[in-house]
Design a protein that fits this description.
- By secondary structure, the protein is of the alpha/beta class.
- The protein has one domain.
- A five-stranded parallel sheet has the order 7-2-1-8-9, with helices on both faces. Strands 3-4 form a two-stranded antiparallel ribbon.
- Helix 2 runs antiparallel to helix 3.
- The longest helix has 15 residues.
- It is globular and about 50 Å long.
């Protein structure tokens, strides 16, 4: 075991994730993008997230397609955009929703740049997450599963394989869907401590009526700018 704890967190590269995603990223030493795992079947937050508009909360959803013959079995690396028209639609919706926000001029350019410069689903999502992480000053080291391991197990075995590869003794998990992957006994047998994120969603000044939580991180960034960094500091 290392002299001081080494903490790993893992997650798929979702589209403009919520604040809790970045809180987890801020409280680990290594954050691993699960780029060579199976893309979810059915509805998920992989290609979409929610923002607040003058007409209420709405989803921004990237239309995606699977390689022929791989419906339901494709990896994240194999997912492509179904068309190109969605980018201008998302940019327009975000602009109309947040142009009155205090930090619109500061945040919108890196959102627009990522959309216009990236023509692959995975690359776009990682580019956006990285732009936000850099803006928020998140110091964890980020890497892709494909850069680390060619072969790996499923669910808890995957966590064990990643932790061993990085010399980590602590796994930081989200409290949502992540729990179904966690076999704490198996982790303990491999010398890995399981810790769940203690993120508490803040209430902050927000446009368009009563506060709504668990939106895309864009909402906090447009409304709070650098102050968003403070939301990531509650202790694990």
């Amino acid at each position: 075991m290392p002299d001081s704890p080494v903490t790993v967190a893992i997650h798929q590269a979702n589209y403009i994730p919520w604040l809790g995603y970045f809180h987890k990223m801020a409280h680990c030493d290594y954050f691993v993008y699960l780029d060579t795992v199976q893309y979810p079947r059915g509805q998920s937050f992989s290609p979409r997230n929610r923002i607040k508009t003058p007409n209420g909360v709405t989803f921004l959803t990237i239309p995606v397609k699977h390689p022929p013959g791989k419906e339901g079995k494709a990896l994240y690396t194999e997912i492509e955009f179904a068309d190109a028209r969605w980018k201008q639609k998302h940019l327009k919706t975000v602009m109309l929703s947040y142009k009155r926000a205090p930090f619109f001029e500061e945040i919108y350019p890196f959102y627009e740049q990522a959309l216009l410069e990236n023509n692959r689903f995975l690359e776009l999502n990682i580019a956006l997450i990285e732009a936000v992480a850099v803006y928020l000053g998140i110091p964890s080291k980020r890497m892709r599963l494909s850069e680390m391991l060619d072969n790996f197990g499923q669910k808890t075995d995957l966590i064990v394989d990643i932790c061993k590869q990085l010399g980590a003794d602590t796994y930081l998990s989200g409290v949502g869907g992540g729990k179904e992957y966690n076999d704490e006994e198996t982790l303990n047998q491999n010398g890995i401590r399981l810790v769940y994120s203690k993120f508490e969603h803040p209430v902050y000044p927000q446009l368009w009526g009563d506060f709504v939580s668990h939106l895309s991180v864009l909402d906090a960034l447009f409304n709070c700018g650098p102050e968003t960094r403070e939301f990531l500091k509650n202790n694990e």
